[in-house]
Each structure stands twice: as C-alpha cells, then as structure tokens.
Amino acid sequence: MNGNNKTFPSDFTLTGLFTNNKASGFLFSIICAIFFMAMIANGVMIFLIYIDPHLHTPMYFLLSHLSFIDIMYISTIVPKMLADYLEGEGTISFIACTAQYFLYMGFVGAEFFLLGLMAYDRYVAICNPLRYPVLMSHRVCWMILASSWFGGALDSFLLTPITMSLPFCASHKINHFFCEAPTMLRLACGDKAVYEMVMYICCVMMLLIPFSVVIASYTGVLITVHQMKSAEGKKKAFATCSSHMMVVILFYGAALYTYMLPQSYHTPTKDKVFSVFYTIITPLLNPLIYSLRNRDVAEAFKRVLARCRGTREEF
C-alpha cells in the first residue's frame, strides 16, 4: 500500500452505539441505567462479603474480586461513551485510546483467568470437601488472584504496544464505541502477520486455557455428583455450581466470538452487539446471578439490613 495512505498517530473518532437518532435517547437511558445498576450491585456485593463473617470463605473472597474487576473494566468504557453522546462528539486521542485499550485488556484478561480458576474452587468443594481448607487456603486464594492479574497484565503489555504501533490508514474512524482489538486491527495498514500471531497466542492463553480448566473441573464435578446417592446432595452440588456456570457461558461465549472467530465472520454491527453483551451487560448480570441464586448472599443482605435497623432504633 502506498505510504501516502498511512497516517501517524493522531485523534480517532468513535462512532459509538447511539447512531440512530430516533432510538438514541432511549438507548442512552438504558445504558446509563445498566451502568449505575452494575456499579451499585457489584459495590453491594463487595460490601456484603467484606462485612459479613459468614461470607469470609474462599469462594466469596474470589467473588468479591470478580465484582471489583467488573467495576473497573465497565468504568473504562461506559463513562466515555455516555460523555460522547452528551457532548455530541466521539473524538478520542491516541493516548486515551491506548490507555483505554491497555486497561480494558488487563481487566478483561484478569476476569477470564479468575473465572476459570474459580471453577477449581467448586471442584475442590464438591470432590474433595475434607481437604477444602488445605487446597483452598488463604495462600492459595491469593495465588489465584495473583495469577489472574498476571495473566491480564501480560495480555495488556503484549498486545497494546503491538496494536498501537501499527500504521493506521487515512481513516481514523473507529466503527465501535471503544478501542477494541478487532476494530483497531481493521484500521491498520501494512503487514499484520506478527500482530495476528501474537493475538492468537494471547487468545489461546486468555480464553482456551481458563476454559479448559473449567471443562476439566466440571467434568470431575459431574462424575462426583453422578456417584452421589443422596438426591439432596446432588441438588446442593448443582446449586453451588450453576451460578458460576451461567456466568462462564455468558462471558466466554461472547468473548470467543470477538477474539477467536476469523475477521471474515465479523461485521461492525455484530461486534458492537457482542461487545455490549460482555462489557456492559455481563458486569450487571454477574452480581445478580450470584445473589439471586445464592441463599448465603440473600441471608447476608438480610442480616446487614437487620443490623442497620437495630442501630437506627438505638439512636
């Protein structure tokens, strides 16, 4: 391609989600509501796990960090998108786009690994309950968190320099609502072979490895549950795992489309829909799924409310 058709780093323009004038206001209201509900729901989840001693277990310790990651990565995308709609423009500087890309890849990568390793927690709880305190000790929990953050950081430090150092074509119009990898790749000119190879390796590491841990863990769980004679035990085991499996299917399903399917299967509209699903909707669904389907969280919420009422009556 002629070098004159390439430009050096400058501002980009995000087309955003609100392109239909008739529905844009309604869509803005929905996204705004989802954002604030996700922030509140995840914040409440973290607060309950921190304040209630009954939730001071490895599973809820990991769940509190999952909520923290959800808060962080939805905050890297949605506020900018909402502000662009209110200001009537979608300009983002090269530095801001790079920062958003870096933070997004780090937080999402950390969530991929954390969700995968949380399946191991469920495996130990059901298949090796007597050794659970040893196999899921405080030290092991911190190792799981450190591994998740390391995996996310590795994705960011590998992909961000390669992506943002690519020569971009004359059009700096990003047909998306944030600086996401597949969209940025479509803007790039020249040889993308190195980038695509690194992207593939990172996707294998970020998606397939954690997903393999999930498959292996739940295969062991299913075998153990099948061998149980107690119907009540089977029901309890299923209830313990079902919330996590729902979150895994929702999150990994959308991400597999975004990062594993060839570019020929992608369209701007599909990319936006799937990105909305796992970057905006999933952070809201995570705490709702875990709270609505989890008796411990519901009871913890009731205890906190009762404690607040008791404190108010004393005054």
In short:
The protein has 315 residues and is mostly helical. It is 77% helix and 3% strand.
Primary descriptors:
315 residues, mainly alpha, Rhopdopsin 7-helix transmembrane proteins, two-stranded antiparallel ribbon, 11 helices, globular, disordered N terminus, transmembrane
Task: Give a written overview of the molecule.
The protein is mostly helical and 315 residues long. The chain has one domain (25-298): Up-down Bundle (Rhopdopsin 7-helix transmembrane proteins). It contains 11 helices and 5 strands; from the N terminus they run E-E-H-H-H-E-H-H-H-E-E-H-H-H-H-H. The protein has helices at 21-51, 58-75, 78-87, 94-127, 132-135, 138-164, 181-187, 193-227, 231-260, 268-292, 295-314, and strands at 6-7, 12-14, 91-92, 168-169, 173-174. The chain has a 3-stranded mixed beta sheet. It has a two-stranded antiparallel ribbon with strand order 1-4. Helix 2 (58-75) runs parallel beside helix 6 (138-164) and helix 6 packs antiparallel against helix 8. The longest helix has 35 residues, at 193-227. It is globular, with a radius of gyration of 22 Å. Mean pLDDT is 83; it is low at 1-8. One of its GO terms (cellular component) is plasma membrane.
Outline the fold blueprint.
Blueprint: E1 6-7, E2 12-14, H1 21-51, H2 58-75, H3 78-87, E3 91-92, H4 94-127, H5 132-135, H6 138-164, E4 168-169, E5 173-174, H7 181-187, H8 193-227, H9 231-260, H10 268-292, H11 295-314
Parallel strand pairs: 2-5
Antiparallel strand pairs: 1-4, 2-3
Helix pairs in contact: 1-2, 1-3, 1-10, 1-11, 2-4, 2-6, 2-10, 4-6, 4-8, 4-9, 6-8, 8-9, 9-10
